[in-house]
Design goal:
By secondary structure, chain A is mostly helical. Chain A has 13 helices and no strands. The radius of gyration of chain B is 24 Å and the shape is elongated. The chains are: A mainly alpha, B mainly alpha.
Chain lengths: 306, 302
């Protein structure tokens, strides 16, 4: 167990190192010269040169990367070009809102997805099954900004049930969570369906039925827990897809999280912010995968650590 | 003297043509796949025939395309889907926007498939340090959130149609690489490949004659599903303002341009939105049916 943990941790660290190399290479290859942006248009070549030396941008690739990595390890993601503040501070200030939205989205996708998958598996081959599977495809194929704008139009503008955007109360959370959740719900519905169908084929389910248990008891007590297990492990892996949705949905609903930060940075071509959020998300994904691997054997004893 | 062909021997089946016809016939028996094919056909025809299907120019700002107070018109007899904020015909822009979606869908996805297959096959066949470096790099790419990486790349380069296609390809090859890697590495251990090596076949011959043909079904399935992902990613990037740049119409940037007005003119968001959904859904339905037909191990599972 300990050896496995150490190896997984080491692998994760290697992946993080690789991620930092790629993001740095992107910054390094950047056609837009940050020095020009800082110095302004009217700067003389001498000024530009001195700023370049001050920032250390005249040094070779590896030296620059070494310093970049050293800063990263200390939690320094660089400074925003435009907002004149530390990227890490901007991100930390907005992280709680994003985490809240993430939790809301996970709750939505699990509630909708697992229910759909369960119903489809129980009614396998019926019209209900087929329409649920088509619905799951619609969920997976729907662009999230359109879903967001549609929900906003119907439930906020027309029906007035929810606020038109913003942040603060529970009712602000519903529409954005639902929007992010619909995509994942489509995936979970399909996974839940096939997992449930596999479980329902098992001998112990036949035994449970044969000894005269009610259909509902067999489903809920015997089949459901085992069908859900492989899916719970997916939540950790899901972080990447969630992050993509969050950038879009936060900009649709004006949700003050790191997604909106990215959206604002896009408008102002503020690369350090975009890079910073990408790094933080990649970190979250690596962490999510690690947690999923570590937690899996605890929820499902059949999984052996290798 | 040559041996006369025996009439008792069955004719050698035409390997390349037979399964293809079978696949099309099987597709035609699935209502969902047929709907998907029909939607794709409509979009392709709409994109190709755009100049003949509409009397307007996609960039033409019409005086009578706005109300007296300068608001866009709702759908009516002249402008079937209404007009946008600048008084341009929405239907025309959607038809021309289909070109953008299809070009990006095919080009970006084609590049992604080529990169993915190259990486997957090389890593799966040659293994060793080349294989492990390639697959570690693939794992690394999987740790990046696709949309954010695409945003980084698109922000770094000046976005144009081709850059957007390239950016999407650079993010989307990863799944193909993983799938083809798994298949190639299991194929490479099979006896018929060993036999080929024993009779002195070159690596190139083994790869092109024996490994790639086995991968074709996988590539077709992932290629079809990939178009859906690509179309959605292009729409999202354009919606965020870093995809295809106006005035070139794209379904995503039509929504980007008009969203400030969507409470008063929701059709400006929902018609292009419906187009994106329909095309992405169509490719997902076809891809799913193809997976059922071409991949027996997955049959009846998802």
């Amino acid at each position: 167990m300990i050896a496995y943990l150490c190896r997984r941790l080491f692998q994760s660290l290697l992946i993080l190192l690789g991620i930092s190399i790629i993001t740095f290479a992107l910054l390094y290859l950047l056609p837009a010269d940050p020095v020009r942006q800082i110095a302004g248009r009217s700067a003389t070549p001498a000024t530009v040169e001195s700023i370049r030396r001050q920032l250390g941008l005249d040094q070779p690739f590896l030296v620059q990367y070494g310093r970049y990595l050293w800063n990263l390890v200390q939690g320094d993601l660089g400074r925003s070009y435009i907002q004149r503040s530390e990227v890490s501070e901007l991100i930390v200030a907005r992280l709680p809102a994003t985490l809240l939205l993430m939790v809301g989205a996970i709750v939505c996708e699990l509630l909708i997805g697992l229910t759909m998958g369960l119903l489809a598996a129980v009614r396998r081959g019926s019209a209900t099954d087929q329409s649920l599977m088509v619905a799951s495809f619609v969920g997976v194929s729907a662009p999230q900004f359109v879903v967001g704008l549609l929900l906003l139009y119907v439930f906020a503008v027309r029906l007035n049930w929810f606020p038109i955007g913003g942040y603060g109360t529970f009712s602000h959370l519903i529409l954005p969570s639902l929007t992010v959740g619909i995509l994942g719900a489509g995936w979970y519905a399909r996974m839940m369906r096939s997992s449930m169908i596999d479980v329902l084929r098992q001998d112990y389910i036949r035994t449970a039925r044969a000894k005269g248990l009610a259909r509902a008891t067999v489903l809920i007590r015997h089949a459901l827990p085992n069908a859900i297990l492989p899916i719970v492990a997916m939540i950790g892996i899901d972080v990447g897809i969630l992050m993509g949705g969050i950038v879009v949905v936060e900009s649709v609903f004006g949700w003050p999280g790191i997604g909106q930060l990215v959206w604002q940075a896009i408008q102002r071509v503020d690369i350090p912010i975009i890079m910073g959020v990408t790094l933080v998300s990649a970190f979250a994904i690596v962490l999510g995968n690690l947690l999923a691997d570590i937690v899996a054997p605890f929820i499902d004893p059949r999984i052996k650590l290798r | 003297m040559s041996i006369p062909a025996s009439p008792d021997l069955p004719a050698r089946p035409n390997v390349s043509a037979r399964p293809k016809r079978g696949v099309l016939q099987k597709l035609a028996r699935r209502p969902l796949a047929v709907i998907g094919l029909a939607v794709v056909a409509i979009v392709v025809l709409g994109a190709l025939l755009a100049p003949w299907l509409t009397n307007f120019d996609p960039d033409q700002q019409m005086f009578d395309g706005l109300t007296l107070t300068g608001e866009p018109l709702p759908p009516n007899a002249t402008f079937w889907l209404g007009t946008d904020l600048l008084g341009r015909d929405l239907l025309t822009r959607i038809l021309y926007g289909a070109r953008t979606s299809l070009i990006i869908g095919i080009v970006a996805n084609g590049i992604a498939l080529i990169i993915g297959t190259l990486v997957g096959v090389t890593a799966g066949y040659f293994r060793g340090w080349v294989g492990s470096i390639l697959m570690r790099f693939t794992d690394l790419m999987m740790a990046f959130p696709a949309l954010l990486l695409a945003i980084c790349l698109a922000a770094v380069f000046q976005p144009s149609l081709w850059i957007v296609a390239l950016v999407i390809a650079l993010v989307n090859w990863v799944q193909t690489a993983r799938v083809t890697y798994t298949q190639t590495s299991s194929l490479a251990e099979r006896e018929f490949i060993d036999a080929e090596r024993t009779i002195g076949a070159s690596s190139a011959r083994i790869l092109f004659r024996h490994i790639l043909p086995h991968l074709v079904p996988t590539i077709i399935v992932w290629g079809t599903l990939g178009i859906s992902t690509t179309v959605l990613l292009e729409a999202t990037l354009s919606y965020l303002g870093i995809g295809v740049q106006p005035p070139t119409p794209s379904w995503g940037n039509i929504i980007f341009e008009n969203q400030t007005y969507f409470q008063a003119a929701p059709w400006l968001v929902f018609f292009p939105g419906a187009a994106i959904l329909a095309l992405a859904l169509a490719f997902n339905l076809i891809g799913d049916a193809l997976r059922d037909i071409l991949d027996p191990t997955q049959r009846g599972r998802t």
